[in-house]
Amino acid sequence: KVLSSINTANKGKVRDFIIPDQTINPTFYGFKVSLKSGDPVALKSSVSNFDGLSRLADTENCSLPIFSSVDGQFTVGPVVWTFPNTTTSFWFLESVGSIVQTAELSMEIAVVQGTMDCRLEAFKLLGINNLMYEFADETWKGWILGKIVSHALSSMDNNQLISQASADITKSIAEDFGNQWCQQQAAIRSM
Question: Does the pTM of the predicted model rise above 0.85?
Answer without folding.
Answer: no
